[in-house]
Design goal:
The complex is a heterodimer of chains A (115) and B (116). Chain A is 0% helix and 49% strand. In chain A, the strands form two sheets. In chain A, strands 2, 4, 5, 6, 9, 10 and 11 form a seven-stranded mixed sheet that branches. Chain A is mainly beta and 115 residues long. With 116 residues, chain B is mostly beta strands. Helices cover 0% and strands 53% of the residues of chain B. Chain B has no helices and twelve strands. Classes of the chains: A mainly beta (115), B mainly beta (116). At the A-B interface, β5 of A face β5, β6 and β10 of B.
């Protein structure tokens, strides 16, 4: 039981390049989330998916797209990377379809540097 | 709207002494409150959560927190710090009436340092 896994662990991009961050969970959870973590700001929600086939914007969605490929996988795409997207990205999942009262389980993170 | 303020960005204690990490929240309805811990270069792990049952919540590794509605606080405590407690701690709120949907709001984090 691996929990939540993320690939890659670390990536360097040049401004304007694109990339996809991958996330998978093996806990049969319904909801999946993408966050970014910046110093002093905690985690901020980029996008979430409350069930397979649905996605919704979070607090900071601009510059990102997501795909809920199936119940296990939730990917985050940067179409044209900008230096402001330098951050640590975390994927998380939870059993239910609403964050209220639900424990979220986090992956180990992806460190992204955009030059 | 919901918000969280962690009153200290850094806290330093000696091993064996008590830990207090302070958190105040703002919520328009009946919040759920969480404390998550992040060890260096790791993902976040749930320490404990309050979901409108008992106001004193016990978590893993000897941590506990008390929900005080009158003070809008949810401070995290531990009687005796251990070296392995050194990490960053996040106070988090979720509000049932949150019109933005399925969202948690994180505080800015408190880095706990434990001196030998």
């Amino acid at each position: 039981n691996a929990g939540v896994t993320q690939t890659p662990k670390f990536q360097v991009l040049k401004t304007g390049q694109s990339m996809t961050l991958q996330c998978a969970q093996d806990m049969n959870h319904n909801s999946m989330y993408w966050y970014r973590q910046d110093p002093g700001m905690g985690l901020r929600l980029i996008y979430y998916s409350a069930s397979e086939g649905t996605t919704d914007k979070g607090e900071v969605p601009n510059g990102y797209n997501v795909s809920r490929l199936n119940k296990r996988e939730f990917s985050l795409r940067l179409e044209s990377a900008a230096p402001s997207q330098t951050s640590v990205y975390f994927c998380a999942s939870s059993q239910g379809t609403n964050a209220y009262q639900e424990t979220q389980y986090f992956g180990p993170g992806t460190r992204l540097l955009v030059l | 709207a919901q918000s969280v303020t962690q009153l200290d960005s850094h806290v330093s204690v000696s091993e064996g002494t008590p830990v207090l990490l302070r958190c105040n929240y703002s919520s328009s309805y009946s919040p759920s409150l969480f404390w998550y811990v992040q060890h260096p270069n790791k993902g976040l792990q749930l320490l404990l959560k309050y979901t409108s049952a008992a106001t004193l919540v016990k978590g893993i590794n000897g941590f506990e927190a008390e929900f005080k509605k009158s003070e809008t606080s949810f401070h995290l405590t531990k009687p005796s710090a251990h070296m392995s407690d050194a990490a960053e701690y996040f106070c988090v709120v979720s509000d049932r009436a949150n019109n933005a949907g399925n969202m948690l709001t994180f505080g800015g984090g408190t880095r706990l340092m434990v001196k030998p």
